[in-house]
Amino acid sequence: MKKRFFTILFIVACWTSYVDLSSGSLPAGQAAQPVTPAVSEKAAVSYQRVTIAPGDTLLSITERINEKQPSIEKALKDFAILNPSVNPNHLQIGKTYAFPRYDKSSDSSTTGTP
């Protein structure tokens, strides 16, 4: 009887640890993400919302909506500013994301951003 009780207790402890670690419910993991810098820089980058279709990538959409082609690094940096916590390598079909626009009027506002 004791053996079953300790086995069940061990399984419950392992399960709760797994759920706690996989869902990110620990407060230490959530407090490390800065929120305010992304909001302040977001205003400096003009953007266009685009719904992802099959075969779309960050670079293909950026090339399609812009006449002037930016560097890959700049496109990735601006996409990360506009869409925090989104991996640009794993865009989901049917979801809408903000993609940076590089027009003549927005060039001066985005080049001065640190």
TrEMBL record:
UniProt signal peptide: 1-21
PROSITE patterns in alphabetical order: LYSM (PS51782)
Domain of life: Bacteria
Keywords: Signal
Classification via InterPro entries: LysM, LysM_dom_sf
Keyword Ion transport belongs to the record: no
Domain LysM: 48-99
Name used for this protein in its record: LysM domain-containing protein
Organism: Sporolactobacillus nakayamae
